[in-house]
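hey so i finally got around to running the thing on that chain from the lab meeting. sorry it took forever, my laptop kept dying and i had to restart like 3 times. anyway pasting the input first so we r on the same page abt which one it is
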Amino acid sequence: MDAEVIVVGAGPAGLMLAAELRLTGVNVILLERLPKRTGESRGLGFTARTMEVFDQRGLLPRFGTIEVSTQGHFGGIPLDFGLLEGAHQAAKTVPQSATETVLEQWAVSLGVDLRRNHEVLGVSDKGLSVQVDVASPDGVKTLTAAYLVGCDGGRSTVRKAAGFDFPGTASTMEMFLADVTGLDLQPRMIGETLPGGMVMVGLLPEGVTRLIVCERGAPPRRRETPPKYDEVSSAWKRLTGDDISHGNPVWVSSFGDATRQAAEYRRGRVFLAGDSAHIHLPAGGQGMNTSIQDAVNLGWKLGAVASGRAPERLLDTYHDERWPVGERLLKNTRAQGTLFLSGSEMQPLREVLSELTAYDDVTRHLAGMVSGLEIRYDSGGGTNPLLGYRLPPLVFDERSVPATSTAALTRARGVLFDFEDNPVLQRIAQGWSDRVDVVTAAIVEHPASWPTSTSAVLVRPDGYVAWAAPGTHADLAMSLERWFGPARERTSRTDTTIDSKTSVLTNR
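ok and heres what got predicted. didnt touch it at all, straight out
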């Protein structure tokens, strides 16, 4: 085989997935049709959950200074995301070009074999492997891998070639997106609904203004080339009365409100992630962020199976966990589109919802939906309120190595956090020491909602709690086997534990 996994598409999802796979030790070929990065800003910023994901892998410093904010919206209705306790603030102005640059550098440094100017022509699942026909600078060739993942966007070649159904609704309108210099406009960060449509203005670094223009009634078009800037400026003038034709376009694009989701995220040895699996109105900047989180969910699972450390059934949990997330994403973006893009007939609904957001519980609910912090996976039963949710950031006492729960996840391994230095739990975990670290630590900082009776938690490589004590129906060994495969034989084992008492990584 040419690689254990082939990933198609070097956007944020593909780059993140390829890097995550390399962290598990498997060989990855990443195919990209374009000869170089586009440099286009496209998706802007990170949700709170994506900020956590990047922090868990030690990536945030690579972005330099990031502008963050607690202010967001749901369909143009302002929300205070600061009500989400124990969460990162969202990043607002990081262009997708910067995100792709950071992720590509990281992926390549980990050993990802990135091949640009390689276009997938066909896919064939052979049962025990996948064959991929590729047009390359050296001609057409066939590559073989154990698994294939399509991260190649809304018009995914992999999805079509592998026969995935992609049901949903077609676009009903066309909207413009443009990055422009030479303009002096007042920010409209959450958008402004006007009699003829909606406009949004965001201020980006280096004097760039991000414009979104939706003219109600504009018919959908399938364009082969980007729209001209005069189309954008003309629509802007019709909606606002202002002339922006003197602006200098950096990048212009158009999009619609098509809403589709793959009926399944896995077919045999072929998977979909990101826009290949779901497309929707880009409301709230959720698309790229959900795609990155798809990649993180799939990466550690596929790596564990491809390397022989976990059984094949683990891969089914990818669809089981991420398909409902995608479904809910489509639901909330359609709801936001209705609020944003409809006419005066929706004004009573906007006003009522605005009244409801004065209640903190309503704001937390909507903010949790848009931020990705509401996600809960099936953990197998139990009563501890942490089960199935992402582990909130914890700070440990000065003796602990690592000093935070976030830092413990940098290696993309499972982690058993033992808050009471329980030798019984540590002995149980020894059978999985090649896949799971043990951190013994005392918590000194935690969110207000943290259940203080919690004595230990098992956290998956993607940061979600799989087991907790007390309050878990299944015992620790069962959870370890469910998520990390069978224990190793105890006769030839080097058990690795992170011990806060000695502040070193010790082999016992």
